[in-house]
Design brief:
about 130 residues; mainly alpha; single chain; 6 helices; 2 domains
Length: about 130
């Protein structure tokens, strides 16, 4: 029963944290059910942060440029124009600059799991 409370705490903290983060970053997949948007965006984040995800990150940048070819992309160190990325085939370099690093994603997952397990333990003490 204690494990169930801990897993529930982790899920609630994970869902709340990432829903708020996606809300701030205007993440939207066009889902009909808004409660599954957080799960789908988290799945995309997970797939873009596992080893060997370079092609997926490049495809994400390529898709962003195809949607709005007149606009550029602002990264951490550089503003990337669509023409510059297309002409010099800088999709991978742009993805490394624009998208957050793998370490920050896994650090967030560890933090959310740690806080969620603490809340789950608190729920266990309250109800058991």
């Amino acid at each position: 029963m204690r494990v169930l409370f801990i897993l529930t705490g982790i899920f609630l903290v994970w869902y709340s944290y990432f829903a708020f983060e996606y809300f701030l970053n205007s993440g939207f997949l066009g889902e009909k059910n808004r409660f599954f948007t957080t799960i789908n965006l988290s799945k995309e984040d997970f797939l873009m942060n596992i080893p060997g995800c370079g092609k997926r990150r490049e495809a994400f940048i390529r898709n962003m440029i195809e949607k709005d070819p007149d606009e550029g992309i602002s990264g951490k160190h550089h503003y990337w124009s669509s023409e510059e990325i297309y002409l010099y085939d800088l999709y991978r370099v742009c993805a490394e600059d624009v998208l957050p690093g793998h370490f920050s994603f896994w650090l967030k997952i560890a933090f959310v799991s740690w806080v969620g397990s603490g809340i789950g333990n608190g729920l266990t003490m309250l109800f058991l």
